[in-house]
Amino acid sequence: MESWYPSLGVIRKILKKIILNFIFILSLFYSHNSKAQMIGQTPGLNPSMNIFSMNLHCFAGNWQFRFEQILNKILELSPDVISLQEVCTTFNGNLNQIEFIKKYLMDRRYPLQKIVAQFTHPAWNQFNEYLVVITKQNVLAVDQGLLPTSELQRGYIAIKLNPFWYINTHLEYKMENSAYRQMQIDFLIQRFLNEAHVIGGDFNSAPDSQEQFNFKRMSYLDFFPGNTFIGDDSNSSRRIDGMWFSPKARMFLKTLNGGITLDQKVNGQYLSDHFAIYSLLTFQLPYRR
After folding, report:
1. pTM (2 decimals)?
2. CA 285 to each of CA 137, 162, 264: distance values in angstroms, whole numbers, following the listed order
3. Which one of 74, 95, 143, 206 has the largest count of C-beta atoms within 10 Å of its C-beta?
4. In angstroms, how far is the first alpha carbon of the chain from the final one?
């Protein structure tokens, strides 16, 4: 019986097929891993995130007692992002609520990574008013500044975490100032138009108001868990504290839960003229077909 040996040309064809198949399998492996690394495996990227937001009402009432109760709740929730409005200092700097908050949290081992403050305007003719954002996560970038001019100057703070930007703001107040608020909303939408982002804070109007219509027109997802404002009659709605998730941010969202907290009196007084809100997010890969 004669033995048959493949020719050199046949051997080359067989080897070429084996190599091409190996390369194809290898490319699939790396493609899968690169997608998986977008979430859950990338350093600094968590599969979930929680956000706390509250208007602290500056130095009103027994502010130190109020702040201690609020900060104790924050320590209990241990949010990844803490967004605060109406945080104040006295003109002479003798009282500084920003430093009070920072020290209180760090003394009780909140793992603070970054705190950002943005001055907005003089308040009640005796204080400097600020926005504050605090996080225990690694911050990739910061953007902050003033919004389009209004009766009282307003501002914003944005921090970039994986997977998107978190923006804290406090828009102009009073019912008759809706035109200012609409300009401020449009400014924030345009500034972060190409980024996945969340815009949250004190909007001084309800999510179904005409001035917030552009959020809905551009397919943002709203999270306004209920009536949060218990102050004066300067607003037509009590449902004014919340968050808007941009379409690109929505691609990352797997679940969105949360609610209202700090809505009960302590020693006969509310802790602010606003209740606090918190959101609990879980993320998924933004697959697109």
Report:
1. 0.84
2. 20, 12, 38
3. 74
4. 58
